Amino acid sequence: MAVVLTARDLTRHYEVSRGLFKGHALVRALNGVSFELEAGKTLAVVGESGCGKSTLARALTLIEEPSSGSLKIAGQEVAGADKAQRKQLR
């Protein structure tokens, strides 16, 4: 079957404030997620609270861009896609 979704080494990091004088910290919400999804197949994402399931969903639905890695939908790389292209890919 044809591959409809490919994720390679997806990461998503957020910079959060540690307080007024303590600077910022880096939260690693996703770290190196990779998989392929074929047409007609189902993908289940399971894990503990706070493990990155929702962050992965936001990356896959193009709500947020990953910090790094590659995401392809129907063979088309989505990095740098403009608003109209993202709408079409969704």
From TrEMBL:
Keywords: ATP-binding, Nucleotide-binding, Transport
Keyword Transport in annotation: yes
Keyword set includes NADP: no
Limits of the ABC transporter domain: 30-86
Gene3D superfamilies (alphabetical): P-loop containing nucleotide triphosphate hydrolases (3.40.50.300)
Origin species: Pseudomonas yamanorum
Gene Ontology terms for molecular function: ATP binding; ATP hydrolysis activity
The protein's name: ATP-binding cassette domain-containing protein
SUPFAM superfamilies: P-loop containing nucleoside triphosphate hydrolases (SSF52540)
A Pfam family matched in the record: ABC_tran
